[in-house]
Specification:
Largest interface: A-B, 30 and 32 residues
CATH class of the largest domain in chain B: Mainly Alpha
Strand order of the largest sheet of chain A: 2-3-5
Number of domains of chain B: 2
Strand content of chain B: 5-15%
Helix content of chain A: 25-40%
Helix content of chain B: 40-55%
Structural class of chain B: mainly alpha
CATH topology of the largest domain in chain B: Cytochrome-c3 Hydrogenase, chain B
Strand order of the largest sheet of chain B: 1-2-3
CATH superfamily of the largest domain in chain B: Cytochrome-c3 Hydrogenase, chain B
Shape of chain A: elongated
CATH architecture of the largest domain in chain B: Orthogonal Bundle
Largest sheet of chain B: 3 strands, antiparallel
Strand content of chain A: 5-15%
Oligomer: heterodimer
Radius of gyration of chain A: 26 Å
Order of helices and strands of chain A: HHEHEEHEEH
Number of strands of chain A: 5
């Protein structure tokens, strides 16, 4: 009888200890990020693997030599690189992000060091077709964005 | 007969040969005792952790027989290994068990290295240990939260996620992903650690030790949890060995078997760590076992960070994506969070391996559920199921 009572006292005490911990957490600062109003720390995004992007050389053109190593290495067949006539540089560079598993097989197998992962966390599309990215067009857009910014800064 | 009518809306079965439910239900129902109810738990039941289905024959609240039905998350990883090149299969290994992907990375990379005779530089070996143990902690933390949630306490999983997210932040620096990591390469690892990684890890170790004390106050000493798990679902060493159960379940039963110690691999022989055996072979023993393993992993990470040598993280002339396996056969096992993870490769020297067998510890651990759940209350059977730490993608592969 006494023992059962003592067990109950101990049980209630353990519940009070647990409750005090949860009450402590109620008044501790928030750990989550409220997305539209806040964004995650850019330090974390440095290692984030977003969709692939081509690395520009000093002239802003692609380093790709259309050797097809990335296409052969890819486990998901999500790359399509077509060589241009009479040159090393690619004519088309289509990357299907909807198939990609972000394993870095292409990045590691590229002998020219022409591709890397971007850090686009907030990429949203409405259709699957939009996830088929034309990386050459993307590179051109980035180049013109950089060139467009230069005069603004100097003026 | 009326109870049979209740089970089977299509009426009493006249001809024993006709199939009324699906294949499993039909076979299961055939041996049912009169007056019992067949209960179908899952495949979409919250306490079966994914898409596991359990058929249970119930006599009131008691489970007379229970039988797990598998295959709802079968993704043909073994078949895919026969189609892809060895390099292309690395991302698959991260997806077999999403809670402890790095152990599967290790089992596969280790098997390929053993077969091809590749040597891994010492720095890479230490990086493997650090990443694998961090991942083991995150797996146990999620189990801790999910197990308590199975028993009705929803709050602790949110606390567990706080630590788990910190580990994900740390592992993201080197692996590039927060889930389904594929960090290992044949002959090394994919990237080196930086100062930020070391700082975050060193801060995290004392932080988690403090949090583990909080866990004791919040959950372990809680009277409700104690009464739910103490003495529930005893699994003797004999039962575990008959079904091939490994990992925390076997160690909680009292047998100190750990692949890290018994079949040493990597740099584990150079590290000093205890192989704890559980206080008891019931659900509470398995619960305490995993909390002890978190502490063991913390000790291992501390030692590995202190001993970390400098040098390359990838061997010279490491295999490229077009690498072919030499002819031969090998088996390599590592200790995952759920038990022994093994990869058996048979290669005929072709472009892709001839056959790969993945030994998932969860499959063996789940097999003993049918015997362990016999004669228990349904609520206790679910506690047993939770204490096995099942990851259904790993069970089905």
């Amino acid at each position: 009888m006494l023992r059962a009572l003592w067990d109950n006292v101990k049980g209630i005490y353990s519940l009070l200890v647990g409750m005090s911990i949860t009450w402590g957490f109620l008044f501790s600062p928030r750990k989550t990020v409220h997305y539209p109003r806040q964004v995650v720390d850019s330090e974390i995004l440095k290692s984030y693997r977003g969709p692939l992007e081509l690395i520009p050389d000093q002239a802003g053109a692609t380093k790709c030599i259309s050797c097809q190593m990335c296409v052969r290495a890819c486990p998901d067949n999500c790359l399509k690189v077509v060589k241009s006539e009479g040159g090393k540089n690619p004519k088309t560079w289509i990357y299907d992000f909807s198939l990609c598993c972000l394993c870095a097989a292409c990045v590691e197998s590229c002998p020219a060091g022409a591709i890397r992962f971007s850090h686009k966390v907030y990429l949203v599309t409405k259709t699957r077709e939009e996830l088929k990215l034309d990386l050459l067009a993307d590179l051109k857009a980035r180049k013109s964005a950089i060139l467009g910014n230069v005069p603004k800064k100097s003026s | 007969m009326s109870s049979l009518n209740f089970i089977n809306p299509f009426g009493v079965r006249d001809d024993p040969g006709t199939v009324v439910g699906d294949f499993y239900t039909d076979n299961f129902e055939r041996n049912a005792r009169p007056g019992t109810v067949i209960l179908n738990l899952g495949p979409q039941h919250p306490s079966t952790h994914g898409v596991l289905r359990v058929l249970a024959e119930m006599d009131g609240e008691y489970v007379v027989r229970a039988e797990p039905v598998l295959g709802y998350l079968h993704r043909m990883h073994e078949k895919m290994a026969e189609v892809k090149t060895p390099w292309q299969f690395i991302p698959n290994t991260g997806r077999v068990d999403y809670l402890h992907p790095i152990s599967w990375n290790w089992a596969y990379a280790g098997a390929v290295e053993q077969l091809a005779g590749l040597t891994v530089p010492p720095r890479a070996e230490y990086l493997r240990v650090i990443s694998c143990e961090l991942n083991r902690i995150s797996s146990h933390l999620l189990w801790w939260g999910a197990f308590v949630m199975d028993l009705g306490g929803v709050t602790p999983i949110l606390y567990a996620f706080e630590e788990r997210e910190t580990i994900n932040d740390i592992l993201q620096i080197i692996t590039g992903s927060r889930l389904t990591m594929s960090y290992f390469r044949f002959g090394g690892v994919s990237s080196d650690i930086d100062a930020r990684f070391i700082k975050l890890t060193k801060d995290f170790i004392p932080y988690l030790r403090e949090r583990l004390k909080m866990y004791t106050g919040l959950v372990t000493d809680n009277v409700i949890l104690r009464r739910r798990v103490e003495g529930v679902g005893p699994m003797s060493v004999d039962l575990c060995q008959r079904y091939g159960a490994t990992g925390p379940i076997l160690r909680a039963a009292g047998l100190a078997r750990d692949t890290r110690r018994d079949i040493p691999y990597g740099v584990y022989p150079k590290l000093e760590f205890p192989i704890p055996t559980g206080p008891s072979d019931d659900c509470f023993g398995r619960y305490m076992m995993r909390l002890k393993e978190i502490e063991t992993s913390l000790t291992i990470i501390e030692q590995a960070l202190a001993q970390l040598p400098s040098g390359p993280y990838m061997m010279e002339k490491a295999p490229k994506a077009t690498f072919k396996l030499p002819k031969g056969e090998t088996y390599f096992a590592v200790e995952g969070a759920r038990g022994q993870v093994g990869v058996h490769i048979v290669s005929d020297g072709g472009k892709s391996p001839y056959r790969i067998k993945l030994r998932a510890p969860g499959f063996s651990n789940l097999s003993l559920f049918a015997e362990a759940a016999k004669g228990t209350l349904l609520a206790d059977a679910l506690a047993i199921l939770g204490s096995l730490d099942l990851v259904i993608p790993e069970v089905d592969r």
